[in-house]
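User: Fold this; tokens only.

Assistant: Input:
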Amino acid sequence: MTRAAVLTAVGAPLRVAEIDLPDPGPGQVRVRVAAAGVCHSDLSLANGTLRQPVPAVLGHEGSGTVTAVGEGVTHVAPGDHVVLNWAPACGGCHYCGLDEPWLCASGLAVPASPYATLGTDGTPLHPGLGTAVFAEETVVRAAAVLPLPPGVPLAEAALLGCAVLTGYGAVHHSARVRPGESVVVVGIGGVGLATVRSACVAGAERVIAVDVSPEKEELARACGATDFVPAGDDTVRRVRELTGGHGADVAVECAGRAEAIRTAWSATRRGGRTTVVGVGGKEQLVTFSALELFHSGRTLAGCVYGNTDPARDLPVVAGHVREGRFDLSALVTRRIGLDDIPDAFAAMLAGRGGRSLVVF
């Protein structure tokens, strides 16, 4: 038996319960979870914005220690510290063949089969995004387990599983920020803070953070933002004033809302790059005129998981952490238990804080 936060139905509150986990089968790994980040995508799964079979154990941003491996697993062993990868690539589909593993046809597929059962009555449980780290232990496919490079704190390493790789990839792979450029980041949650820090690591000269909550200024500056602009009617004007009247070279949107995407686009200079990282609902519609698309010459790009290859990028980011260029703890504003996840969801909805980290 192990404790987990269970989503019994879409829109229902999470409840902590005992669950039964199987021993790992062929090609599977059992992990004792050290920590799990509470991501906005978990909230989107819980409220139905993103599709998820229920009942389920959510949580996709996690780190931990391997306790057992199934037949055929050789890249990790019991006792190894690992990071969970919620979108492992298959290596054989059309997109993997194009060296675009973040678009893998099976990597983002919703697991169709249950992975555990509820301890009280044996109800089958589905794994949220295949990882189910809102639990003391989980069983995942071997491809979802990445060895943690040395020198990274195990608890904070959970953030490498989503927020940090997404922010890092958005800056380095999607927007391709160059030294000396200006960057505006719209939406300063966990991913937004990781994006701010990644822009600094990339050598951006000016990093402007934008958020509806004034309290985010201190968090953003702690991660390296040079400026903070409250989201509002004059956001674009203020960003342009800070960038010589032109707008930022790069804008990264991390909120997943139509108005935030529109703000990021309008705050980008002519010929600049706008990258959309936030996961919004299908009702979030953004409009552009044909004339402005022509005249602005900007590039607008979507970004899945930071366009990263976790196996390749995790060691690189870990090196930045180890060498002091990326402070993971600066992203964490609350350390909580399983029972506190609903409060963390409420804080996200209210625009409070950065990343909440469930620490076991």
